[in-house]
Design a protein that fits this description.
The protein has 135 residues and is mainly α. It has 5 helices and no strands.
């Protein structure tokens, strides 16, 4: 699956949390989100936006990609026969960082686990979440 086709699929399945997503669908959408936020951040930064403006702009910029990001991650986890709820593994790291000041170590560990999971080959054939996605 190519870059444009992956984006089209992710935005067509905006609220679809069931089924499966191929590695290429997930990683191309992840690349798009990264580039989207990077370019927007540079434009806002070069425009001389204040910290408060950057915070508000970030929230507005996340609106169109937040739900499809969660949905494609859930479908990708389904492809490796895991529950989509496993993406909530970042919540303890966030909580520890915000309240205890120790979350950075937990972030690194969960980031490694996240990268490992999403880089795994999907289960061949049908699994409990549906048929194998096209490449």
């Amino acid at each position: 699956m190519g870059f444009a086709e992956s984006l089209k699929t992710c935005f067509e399945k905006y609220f679809k949390f069931d089924g499966r997503a191929s590695k290429s669908e997930f990683w191309y959408f992840f690349l798009f989100c990264f580039a989207y936020l990077l370019v927007a951040g540079f434009l806002l930064g070069f425009g001389g936006a204040s910290d408060a403006t950057l915070d508000g702009a970030t929230l507005v910029l996340l609106i169109p990609i937040f739900i499809p990001s969660i949905a494609v991650a859930a479908r990708r986890l389904h492809d490796i026969n895991q529950s989509g709820w496993m993406q909530c593994i970042f919540i303890p790291g966030f909580m520890a960082d915000e309240f205890l000041g120790t979350g950075f170590v937990i972030y690194i560990l969960t980031l490694g686990l996240w990268a490992f999971w999403f880089s795994q080959a999907g289960k061949k054939g049908k699994n409990r979440f549906g048929a194998q996605p096209r490449k």
